[in-house]
Amino acid sequence: MIAFQNVSFSYEKERPVLQNLSFSIGDGEAVGLIGANGAGKSTVMKVLLGLLPCEGKVLVDGIEVGHGTLYEIRRKLGFVLQNSDHQMFMPTVYEDMIFGPLNYGASRAEAEAHADAALAQLGIPALKHRHNHKLSGGEKRMAAIATILAMQPEAILMDEPTAALDPYNRRLVINIIRSLNQTKLITSHDLDMIRDTCSRVILLSGGTIAADGDAETILRDRALLEANRMELPLSLQ
To answer: For the CA atoms of 42, 142, 132, 94, what is the dihedral angle to 10 degrees?
Structure first.
């Protein structure tokens, strides 16, 4: 579903952020992308979405990411931002949910059907006509996920989906992520959440892959994590 082939990127020539990065993610896989601050996690997401140019190739469902393919690429990828306030910009949840489908050519009836289905899937139909500025942090995070599901993407990218949530809402979001059938690529410092939602982990360090494999194996490797400026998940300490 997603492939990086010898991808490099730098904001400044003498300071590469990604260095010959190569990996692939199969259809339906749930992959956690972890690493210390500055490891390159956010840059991977931006390159994948076509927001940053790069050397090498990035493919989504066999289509190379490039200027001429961005419309098609972004129909296949849904991106849940870390800060829901940057994603939810219409007055109500429902208006936000139908905005994307309508702008991709869906009829009003189709957009509303997609929105209703997403709300039902997540068990949050009560949020449908709520005003975004009146939602709690947890409600807004779940509504943000719903807006992406209404777009019916084939893969979902998530940036720190449990950041700043209280324990109750964190668990709700984790359960929602686990219920999604789409291909998932999740970046987070919350390694317990990664352990709960992902079967595979890619550990980045200095823009290269320090480890790629079974999530439980990597997240239990204290020496590996500490060598890359990380700590064991709290549940394993």
So the answer is: 110
Query: Running DSSP on this structure, what letter comes out for residue 237?
Result: -
Tokens of 80: 């849940």
Q: Spell out the residues 6+ positions from residue 157 whose beta carbon is closer than 8 angstroms to its own.
A: 45, 48, 49, 77, 78, 79, 80, 184, 185, 186
How many whole angstroms separate alpha carbon 60 and alpha carbon 219? 27
Classify the C-alpha dihedral 196-197-200-201 as positive or negative.
negative
Sorted by sequence, the CB contacts under 8 Å of residue 98 that are 6+ apart come out as 108, 111, 112, 114, 115, 150
Q: Cβ(24)–Cβ(194) under 8 Å?
A: no
> Which helix (H) or strand (E) is 132 found in, with range?
none
Beta strands in the chain (DSSP E): 2-12, 15-25, 30-34, 55-60, 63-64, 77-80, 155-159, 183-187, 200-205, 208-214
Which tokens is 139 given? Answer: 């409600």
What is the mean pLDDT of each successive set of 10 residues along the chain, which is 237 residues long? 97 88 97 96 95 96 95 93 89 95 93 95 93 91 93 95 90 92 96 97 96 98 97 94
What does the buried/exposed string (b/e) look like for 199-217 if buried means 16 or more CB atoms within 10 Å of the residue's CB?
ebbbbbbebbbbbeeebee
Angle between helices 137-149 and 108-122 (to 10 degrees): 130
pTM summary value: 0.93
**Burial of residue 120 (number of CB atoms within 10 Å: 0-12, 13-18, 19+):** exposed
Q: Which of 201, 198, 226 is nearest to 212 (CA)?
A: 201
